[in-house]
Design goal:
alpha/beta; 9-stranded mixed beta sheet; 9 strands; binds iron/sulfur cluster
């Protein structure tokens, strides 16, 4: 499987990419349609258009020509539901996933509202810790809730991919998993993550490495970075929920106490979900 490339909307760069899945970052909503069109014209496979805006979801007018374009839309908040209600059907019909910062407690409620209306939401964990109790309520609703709703990520992904023997890395939801995707700057320099790209930390000076990433030492180090936790005897390695977190909540402040209690509870919810699922399959309620 070809690795996905995350890059800015740069036609020259897109022309250098040869038949890869591509997600393009645009800074303007007006660029969504032309960027998607150009990825397809360049012979690549459009994976996503990633767009981050400073205004609330309710202030965005969803356009007809976004139809068929998978959009990852990062917004700071939902805004007034009254102003968004008339667009719910359109957002649902478009393949738009809404990314909201988890540190804003109101966004946890917004996620629940949007998901209940069939819109996929994805919580973004930044530098500040979320309200772990509220997050826990949302996580339980997302995984075990009986009322039909769209996925709330990363909970849905973790519950779906969890098997006791393996770790679950949900970084790909945030385009942050070098096993699945790499980031390019406008000159084709390659980074392991968006964070590395911003910090001008590159593993290759040009795009040619994407044809055989494993031959690149920086890439090999990147995909094995989790091992460093064990070499360092990091507190995360003692966390009961390590296998479904892999240290991803470390960015939310420098304490592991709140996140560890949360993820331990989540592991128990995920195991409960798995047991229920297996029972349903056994009883022929699911395929
Ligand atoms: S929940 Fe916190 S302590 Fe546990 S693995 Fe994740 S970041 Fe580390």
């Amino acid at each position: 499987m070809k690795i996905e490339l995350i890059c800015p909307y740069n036609k020259e760069l897109l022309d250098q990419i040869d038949g890869h899945p591509v997600s393009v970052q645009v800074s303007d909503l007006e660029d969504i349609h032309p960027a998607a069109q150009y990825v397809r014209e360049s012979g690549n496979v459009l994976s996503n258009i990633i767009v981050e805006v400073e205004k609330p979801l309710s202030a965005i007018t969803f356009q007809k020509d976004w139809a068929g374009i998978p959009i990852s839309l990062f917004v700071p908040e939902m805004g007034s539901f009254k102003d968004i209600a008339h667009q719910i059907q359109k957002i649902r019909d478009l393949k738009t996933h809404i990314y909201l910062p988890a540190e804003n407690a109101e966004n946890l409620t917004s996620c629940r509202i949007l998901a209940s209306l069939g819109i996929t939401c994805c919580l973004v964990f930044g530098n500040q810790a979320p309200d772990w109790d509220l997050l826990s309520d949302l996580m339980t609703y997302a995984i075990l809730g009986n009322i039909p709703h769209a996925p709330i990520e990363p909970f849905n992904y973790i519950a779906d991919h969890y098997v006791p023997e393996n770790n679950v890395d949900w970084g790909s939801l945030y385009f942050d998993d070098p096993l699945k995707c790499l980031h390019l700057d406008s000159n084709g320099k390659v980074s392991l993550s968006h964070r590395d790209l911003i910090n001008s930390s590159f593993i290759a000076e040009n795009i040619s490495m994407i044809h055989d990433p494993i031959a690149n030492e920086g890439y090999r180090n990147g995909i094995n970075a989790w091992r460093q936790f064990f070499l360092d005897n990091h507190p995360c390695t003692l966390c009961k929920g390590w296998k479904i977190c892999l240290g991803r909540f470390l960015s939310c402040g420098n304490q592991t106490k709140g996140c560890s209690a949360f993820i331990t509870e989540m592991l128990s919810v995920v195991e409960q979900f798995r047991t229920q699922h297996q029972q349903n399959v056994g009883q022929g309620n699911l395929s």
